[in-house]
Structures are given as structure tokens and as C-alpha cells.
């Protein structure tokens, strides 16, 4: 899933790097506050372990290969911030020393695998595990966290790649970066990850968390309660917020200053992305035609604002749904 | 335990009896059994081969960093900035000419770093071009993007259909597709070449020092140092485990067993890792580690070499600008 | 406050350590070490020698019992004070059994420089000490090499150099001769003799009886029940074949043909 250099425009990489920066800043600040070298040693070992685990290539029937990533494991054992740091370090070493992933693309890879994946994993784990879960529920939470985190990262990767031919073309139509558009990139990536890499990740995560739970349960992340509840939300909020801002910024980037793309291409673009994001799909057609067309038509950049608003609305809805789910799962019960 | 007073082994000592099946000799080796059954746990083998490759490449890196070339003598900070600028230039280039120029510049730099050009070009050039080419190849055809056809690959005819799908009248390699594909390939190769050059002529720790001088937080630098170091310890553990396992397996089932072994291996690796982490932390404390990191400056770099590299970089960037 | 005013360097009272709440490591050990003594901690694997050394080094804290070093209590609280931490760490050096755990710097030079640098020595002093240690351990050619790529013997030398670089008053060594080639072994013994002449306090945890005989005048035998079985002059311990056998320090073939 590591994107090499050449497939993403520098604008995309810059935007994703900028998106990763706030989360990393917080993570590094928290690391600095630890005067105890134990955390440092543990993070380093987690990064190294992640690196070695990622070397395990699973041959996929169609000839490619997928490998476990370990973001979920990192999130469960180190917490969201520690996981972000550990994954970022692993990715940086892979890029610098083993050419696995590009240098400029490091911004994108860090965003997908180092910020998004651990955040999703941590959140899913907290929501599904709840307070004082049984062993079965814990393992399921871990496996699910693994599965969903890797697929979230795959989806983000596919979207980033798929947007390239739409946004970055030479005047004569030559695709400057990745040539495969969304309708090819997304299914291709998602198939491999939903069917192969996802289950592998779920298995590895589940097995290891299972072992840790048996021997040293205090190593596992505590259920989110009190001030930690905010901590569980924060990565997700940050990430979602960045996702909202991401694509429109890509639209506004100098790369499109060619100004050569036709309005219908743009409509195609806006039509694509929300369709790919299931949550937004139904609402887009319902709300926006009434919203954007009369007010924003004719306003320069109106499409962008319209998109921002729709995305914001979609995300608010997603958060609302999650909130309801969480309340349903976490409210006090007679038996856990 | 036996009576310590009677310590020397004698006939009256109870003899340890081994299980009888250990005494059963093997049947003589017939012609059919001489052909070894290949243990096809492919992905584990590939991982271990990969692991050895990692170790070998890192050792290789140290060796090149010790050679006396222009790149080795330049300071790591200058190297990082120059190479980053070049990678960025490649990323921003929108034509084949500037990209070709940049790649040529890479090869020149490799020569200046006293690298073995043949293996360098093979590893970072051919390999990357080949695999990237393979990935973007379908993207070069009219199947993915319509464009000016250069080479017609298949002519289906005006009303061709494949079941419910309407086929295009012809499938061709488009000019735009080819150009685009080549650009991706060249960018990938340039980037990999430059990154390899950077790390191979600098060595991991000097590189880290350079990054720190450029603003990487000390805690993160320490994190990188420790991680890099632990990777090799973990790899040794993996290799030992694989060797021990291999000695005990007499037949193999591919695929599924391999995957389960992989999961079990990750599992066992984790156990050893946790114990090691604790020991290392204690060792650091014992030597007075108090949370802040003190890197002791050692390597002196040549200002002349750094300047020459910077000048060369500017020259290349200028050339790219002119040719774009 | 730190001078040898007749107080013992280490004073351990009825210390109990249990791992993970279930596995006993030390079951009530008491010990007193005076300044300048050379002590061998003898016992088979798993008896708790390493644990005891780590307790003395302030890296592990007992579940019950007290530990005092240089007259000061060794507790998480006392070591949390930076001044005491620095002073204690400079005075007590621990050579780990696992060399890999102990080497975590980019080059051998920096590995040896780590201790002095962490404890605030000026750069020229750091440089001088590193050079001296490289010469002493005969590893000058390895100065720019990465420590974790060296052979076991070389790693051990680097580790020892790193520990000695801060000039500790007390040297704790955990199985220093395990897996060593004879020449490195000899060098180690010579260095320990040299340290003895300089008045250093040495505690060597080992099951190598020959090493004990060569460097330690006092032997403390810890049995498999994690208690002290003997505390007295080394020759007396080594002459007691019965005790050695019961403590699992020698086997039957040694008993038949004792080598010491």
C-alpha cells in the first residue's frame, strides 16, 4: 500500500503532509513530555516490530501480494499518539532505506498508514470493546479494528491515486501522475484489501492482542472514559476534518491552474468522490441541488464551497451516526 | 539428584533410559527418497530472504559510506537539501526532457559517489523502470484514457461487443498514455536513485545527524536510532527461529500452513521483543540516560565537497528549467 | 556524603523480588558489601543473581526488604531526584549479560562516549576517556563501526569500555565470561585485576568457578531456592565440593575429576 514517488503530484503530497503535521506535532510533544526512556524504547521496538511484520508478504491468488501493516496493533498497545509516531518512523525508514514508498509520497503514506489507520483502529477498538469487555469481545474488537483500519487506509490511498488523472493533466490530456482514475483505482485496491489484506491484518491483530491479554493485560489500551473519551474522539475529528479540507485544496492547487479542465469534468469529479464515500452518497443528490445551485452558481469557486458544505454535512451525519452507535454500545447494561 | 557423596559414575549408578523409539534405526535411503520434498512455504522463505537482503543492503551501505568520493565528503545537511530539491524538481516536471536530464544527473552523481554503476543502475534503474512500467502499462492504452493513438494493438471493429459490454473500435497505445507512463517511470526511478544515493553515501547515523541539524526533534532522532538498531536484532531473531524451524520440518504444506506459521512467527517475535525492550531501557538508565539525548559530533565534512554538490544541483535545476 | 567513611557500599536486607507476581527471583536475600571488596555471586541459571545485580544497580526494586547504597536508600523516589540519580549512576556501573541490550549507539566511539556525555562531562574530557578506553580494551580499530554488527567478544569489550568510561567506583558484572573466546577472557581478567589494584569494588555474578577463583576473595552462593547458601572466603567455597554440587554449580563429571 506504500505509494512510490511519481504517482502523486507534489501538491497532493504537500496537502497530505500538511494534514499529518498537526497530529504528529501533538504526538511528538507528548513524547517529549515523557522524561522516562521506557516509552522511547517501547516505541522504537514497536516501530522495528512493525517493520519486520510488514516484511511478511502474503501471496495473493492474482499474483500481487499484500502484507500486514500493524497499525491497529500499534494503536491498541501504544495508544493513538504512540501508534502514529511508531508507524511514521517505520514508514520513514522504509522509504529512506529500502525504497518502499517515495520520499515526497511519504506525506501521503504517513497520512494513510500513520495517521488514518491508527486513528480508525483506536476508535473502532474503543467503541467495540467498550468498558471491561469479555475476552471474546476484546479479540473481536481488535480484529475488527485491524480490518477496518487497513481498509480505511486502502480507500484513502485509492482515492488519492484515483484523483490524480482527474486533477493533473497536461494540456494535451497526458496524465501527469498516476494514470488510473477513481473507477479503476478504488475497486482494484479495495478488492485486494477487503478480501486478503484485511483478514490477514485482522488475524495478526487478534492473535497478538489475545496473547497480550493473557499474559500482560495492562499493556492494552484502557477503555475510553472521562478525559480519555475526548482523547478517543480527537484523532477521528482531526482526521475527518482534514479529509473534508483535503480534496478541495487539491482542486485549488497550482496544478489545476492550467485551467484547462472543462466544467463537465469537474462535475464528474464532484460526482465521483461523494459516490465513493457511502455516507455522503444519498445525501448529496438530496441536499445539494437545492443548496448549491441557486446560491453559489456563478460565484467563482462556488463549486468548491458547495463541495465543502456537502462534505461537512456528510461528516456531521457520520459523526452523529457513530455517536448514536457508541451510546447504544456503551450505555450501562446488566451484564457486560 | 543423586547422592553427592557418590559422585563418580560407576556401574552401580542408575543409567538414564531413553525412550525406545529413539533406538529405532532409519531404513536405508532408497532411490525414490533421494529427491528432497521441497518445502513450499514460499512466503516465509521470501520473508527470510528479504530479511537477509535487508541486512546485506545495510552492510553494503556502510561500506559505500566509507569510500572517498565527493558525495561522501559532502555534509549530510547539504546532501539532504540538494537531493530533496532534485526529487521535487522531478515531481514538478511535466515533460520527458527535464526528467531525462534529471535521471542523467543521478547517474553522474552516482559516479561521483564511487558507486558501482552497473549494480546501481540495475537496482535503482532497471528494476524500478521495469516494475513501474508493468504497473502503468495498461494506463498507457486507450482503454484507460482516450488519446491520440500511436500504435494500434487490437482492432475490434466498429460495432464489436463482448456480451453486454460495448467494445471500443480499437485498442491502442496512446501518445498521451505513453508519455504519461514514461514520466511516472522516470520520476520513480529518479526518486529511488536519489534516495539510495543519499542513504548509501551517508550512512544511517550521519543522515540522522543531518536531519537533526535541519530541525528534526532530538526525541524523534533517538527514536529513529533505536528503531534502526532494533530492526536488526529482530531480524536475527527471525532468522534463528527460521533456521530452528527448518531443521524440524520434514514435509511441507504450502499456502495456508505458511500463513499460519507467519502469524505464529509474528507472535513469537513479539514475546522476545517485549523482554528486549525492558532490558534495553534498563541499560540506558544504567548509563545515566535522563531523557534528553546528547549526540557527540564526530564526522567532519568537507566544505569544498558540499559546495561542489550544491553547485552541481543548481546546475541541474537550471537545466531542468531551461528544458521544460 | 560519598566518601568511604566505613559505611558499606551496599546494604541489602531481606530483599524479596517476584516477577509478574508469580515467579520468585529472590526469596529473602541479605548482603553487605564494603568498599574495595571483590565478591563473586555464584549460582546456577535462574537463581536470582542477575536480579540481585539489577536491584543493587537501582534498576529493579524489591517487593519487600531494603536496599542501601553508599548509605542512601535506593527507591524509585530517591532515584527520581536528578542530583542523586546522576551521582549514583556515575558511581555504579553494570555490565549486562545481554550485550545487544547494552549497545544502542551509532558507533563504538559514541557508545563509549554516551555515559560521560549524559553525565555532563566536557567534550575534551569525553574524547580523552573514549580514546583511553579504546586503547585499554584493544578496540581502537572499531571506533567508527556500528556496535551491533560486531562479534560477541568485541561487543563485550565495547560494553565494558562504555561502562568504565565514567570511572565508576563500583562495577557490577553479569556473567561477563559467558560465550567469550579465551583471549578476551584473559583480557577481562587482567582488567579486573587492574581495577582491584585501584581499589574498585567488584561484584561478579557468574557460574564460572574459575573466574571466581581468579578475581574474587569473597564468594556468595545463591541456591536454586533463591536464598543465600554461603557467604565467605572464595577458597573455602570452592573447596566445599559437596556444597558446590548441591548448589548445582558443578556436575557429576567435575566431582569425579575436580579441576580447581
TrEMBL record, chain A:
Superkingdom of the organism of origin: Bacteria
Primary localization: membrane
GO CC annotation terms, alphabetical: plasma membrane
Bilayer topology: Multi-pass membrane protein
One Pfam assignment: CbiM
Record-level GO BP terms: transition metal ion transport
Compartment annotation: Cell membrane
Keyword vocabulary terms for this entry: Cell membrane, Membrane, Transmembrane, Transmembrane helix, Transport
Transmembrane segments: 6-27, 39-56, 68-91, 103-125, 137-163, 184-212, 232-254, 304-329
Listed PANTHER family: METAL TRANSPORT PROTEIN HI_1621-RELATED
Listed NCBIfam families: PRK11909.1
Name by which UniProt lists this protein: Cobalt/nickel transport system permease protein
UniProtKB/TrEMBL annotation, chain B:
GO BP term (any one): cobalt ion transport
Key words of the record: Cell membrane, Membrane, Transmembrane, Transmembrane helix
Transmembrane segments annotated in the record for this chain: 99-117, 124-144, 178-201, 213-232, 303-323
Keyword Phosphoprotein: no
UniProt region (Disordered), positions on chain: 1-29
Classification via PANTHER family: SLL0384 PROTEIN (PTHR34857:SF2)
Protein name: Cobalt/nickel transport system permease protein
Species for this entry: Thermoflexus hugenholtzii JAD2
Automatic annotation (TrEMBL), chain C:
SMART domains: AAA (SM00382)
Gene Ontology cellular component list: ATP-binding cassette (ABC) transporter complex
Record flagged with keyword Repeat: no
Similarity annotation: Belongs to the ABC transporter superfamily.
Matches recorded under Pfam families: ABC_tran
A single MF term (Gene Ontology): ATPase-coupled transmembrane transporter activity
Organism of provenance: Thermoflexus hugenholtzii JAD2
Cellular localization per UniProt: Cell membrane
SUPFAM superfamilies: P-loop containing nucleoside triphosphate hydrolases
Span of domain ABC transporter: 10-250
Name used for this protein in its record: Cobalt/nickel transport system ATP-binding protein
UniProt KW keywords: ATP-binding, Cell membrane, Membrane, Nucleotide-binding, Translocase, Transport
